[in-house]
Amino acid sequence: MTVARRDLLLGSAVVGLAGGIAPVRAFAAKGSPVDGTGALPMPAPTNVLPAALPVQDAARVLMDRGWLFHEGDIEPAPLDSHNATYISVKAGNARGAAAVDYDDSDWQAVELPHDWASFQPFVKTANVAQGYRPRGIGWYRRSFRLDPALQGRRIELEFGGVATFATIWVNGSVVAHNFSGYNAIRIDLTPFARFGDEPNIVAVRVDAEAMEGWWYEGAGLYRHVWLADYAPVSIATDGVHCDPRKADDGWHIPITATLTSIAPVDSAVTVEARLLDPQGKVVAQGQVPASVRSLDEASATLDLRVTDPMLWSIEQPTLYTVQVRLLREGQVADERRVAVGFRTIRFDAAQGFFLNDKPVKLKGVCLHQDHAGVGTAIPDALIGWRLERLKAMGCNAVRSSHNAPTPELLDWCDRLGLVVMDENRQFNPAPEYRAQLEWLVRRDRNHPCVILWSVFNEEPMQGTPSGVEMVKRMAHWVRALDDSRPVTAAMNGAFFDPVNVAQVVDVTGFNYYQGDYDRYHRLNPTKPMTSSEDTSAFMTRGAFESDPARHIASSYDDEAASWGATHRAAWKAIADRPFVAGGFVWTGFDYHGEPTPYEWPTIASFFGIMDLCGFPKTAFDIHRAAWVDDRPVVAIAPHWSWPGREGKPVKVMVLSNAERVVLRLNGKTMGEAAVDRLMGNEWTVPYAPGRIEAIAYRGGQEVARAAHETVGVPVALRLTPARTVMAGDTEDAQAITIDAVDAKGRHVPTANLMTRFTIEGGAIIGVGNGDPNSHEPEKGNQRSLFNGLAQMIVRPDTGRGRITIRATADGLKPATLKLDRLGVAPRAQVPVVAGDMDVRDWRRSPLMVDKPSPDLAPATSDNNGWAFVRAGTPTPAEGAGWRVYRTVVTPKRAVAARGGEIRFASVGGLASLWVDGQMVADKRDPKPGPMTATLLSGVNKRIIALIVAGMGNIESGLLGRVTVAPR
Ligand code: GAL
């Protein structure tokens, strides 16, 4: 079998950026997954890996592996002396779990992305909006080494997003307090870094009691973490702005590169930019000199011009690459590769949105970052898969509600041809929140997919002078960073108030209030407007009868929130009005939390066009019929297995984009009608087992057909992947569908039985079934089918091989699925170091004429007589005399249990080593050399004293690392 990543298939020179347009898997009409005659309501598997996401900055290395996690808070021990208090507030001396020396040996090893809330049970007393999952506080730690060759380089650590409030320490110094779960946290590690064998320790305390939303937000390090090292003069992170513009004389790419320097002297550099076409060919280039002062920033600007580039569009999302290189003394010191697209956007008050001067109705959905089984910790590949599902439905727009998306989502949207309303979380112009907003714009402003900045969602101050002042400022800051995209605010009222924020944004965003569209347009005929949110309808996937007592909403599209509308009515209101640019359905997928209209025991929402797993509800076909223009669509609801309902009326909906549709039951025509593309066609049919079929015609020709058959009892399980291949690169993931089939191999839409799984060659990182009322755990190796379907999320082991998954259920024939695990090189990860404990901090006595006692110690509160010294800092040659180096070691678990060794890599001078007053080693050669002593098992603190005789003319003392290692 020939398999490859899609970009490699394209043979591109620019891996990952080269217009690797993922073919969107359509729901074909005939013999297709939706025809109900055996296959699933899901696309057929492919045998191609998705293309790797673009690498913008090759200096960044992932730090997703090797984390240790502790659930719950850890209070440091009380400070029991003045001296301990004095020391505790000094740089590098964080206490408790933030301390460099903290014993984390019993913490749990985890990999990122990690959402600890997704492991929690559902608890009635926990917050309803967050899906009844306890959140709490958690700690993470990670150690890593930095090569001594990196000294002098700029080292940066980035957390893509931490839910929710985070405090971060590096090597015992607090380096960040962050008060949002949705912005990246960037830390200049340069001054804190240690090089060589001594590990760097990152500790993160995450306070997920804090909430920023009324939906499930997950908890912990749920996005990637990166470590990067840059030349002393380098390009700042998000420091390239290169968004193409169309001018009268053709296309330009105005480029601004922000440069930053930690070089000891002012530096002269050259910034070079090249535009690469999708095949990697250079089509434009330029360069400009720049100078950067030491410890300062500077910017370099240049303009590339290109005639007649291929445009980026929804149908053909062609990506070019801007390569920006920083040259210093003729050498490439830094480089970024930014995917760009040539497209124009425009919102018109009368005609809506234009992409490349063509009107495009925004057929959008709102998304939270959340999926069955994994919560907010969605692997990149699964994010892509979710977006492909939307695209297959004819969706062309997503709104990242109500926060900055994970950056990979935008990479996928660039590639798939989905436009994005990029939304800010905190409505607040105070400096900290201004920084979050500006970060969002800087990070995302090169993405061709981004077409709108939304400064807020539904803020009660939207109709007040104060709210207007806030939006004015926020919009101004956005425009200062990006003058090419309009600013909106997703309002839920105040549209007609004398003072309201719509007056200071470019596009009015309507959340609901669809009945006010016409009046607003009449009163504001020059103001562009879009629905920023609509619908909020309820459906339980696969259920066709509402049952409020059991918290079930029918999938006939007949239930909606009082402030919303059914899928069909909401879209009709938008589709009928050219002046409404488009809409964003609340929501594309169900999500945990906000379990409207029901509460406990319901734990997830009913709003999705698809359920939590991405299994389509009837809403999927409703939107497919309304939104897909380029291929025929026909679908039928409900399924056709209703034992006991023989002769009784069943409502049948046919959704199609054709001209006419005929409905047949067991070959007999039950109805025929002109297609109502937006509202669907409905018939009431007396139920008879057999085959119900809808045949769609255009110009008198059959163009599509869909059918459901009455199926028998389940006899076997089936496992269906999205792809038959996975990358053995440590990161790939995919959703695999479990269903039950009857004796003829047909999907049984009513099966609700428990299924159990085993896997070899991979791991199951989550399970789900789309039932908003289920309290089954989302981790583990079993899950009930819900209305016929369940899902597991699989992550492959590393390297080439096989993944074998087996599913069993009582009384059914088991299913076995074999997937090929391809030998795809993993992205580099910062190596994990198994750390011995460093004994860093010592007190050093003054120089003494006589040999001191090993018991000699600084007086209480002496912070001046005895020096504070770090292991590895030699005491200068200073004449003959004695000194005591003293510290206290608290053995970590392994040493306490088994005993260990204290190892001095290098001691200068004659020396004797004492542990708790006993001499344990003696060094009789003054030349630098190692010393080692045994530490007996036991939890007690050990007083370590090293008595050193300086020999006059050589450096002495703790010349190297001191470590404690278990036996
Ligand atoms: C909107 C809100 C969404 C969600 C939705 C439910 O008001 O913006 O976040 O809560 O209602 O209908």
UniProtKB/TrEMBL annotation:
One of its GO terms (molecular function) is hydrolase activity, hydrolyzing O-glycosyl compounds. Keywords: Glycosidase, Hydrolase. Residues 647-704 form the DUF4982 domain. Pfam families: DUF4982, Glyco_hydro2_C5, Glyco_hydro_2, Glyco_hydro_2_C, Glyco_hydro_2_N. Gene3D superfamilies: Galactose-binding domain-like, Glycosidases, Immunoglobulins. Residues 717-817 form the Glycoside hydrolase family domain. PROSITE patterns: GLYCOSYL_HYDROL_F2_2, TAT. InterPro entries: Beta-gal/glucu_dom_sf, DUF4982, GalA-like, Galactose-bd-like_sf, GH, GH2_Domain-Containing, Glyco_hydro2_dom5, Glyco_hydro_2. Residues 239-343 form the Glycoside hydrolase family 2 immunoglobulin-like beta-sandwich domain. It comes from the Bacteria. Residues 134-227 form the Glycosyl hydrolases family 2 sugar binding domain. This is Glycoside hydrolase family 2 protein. It comes from Sphingomonas sanguinis.
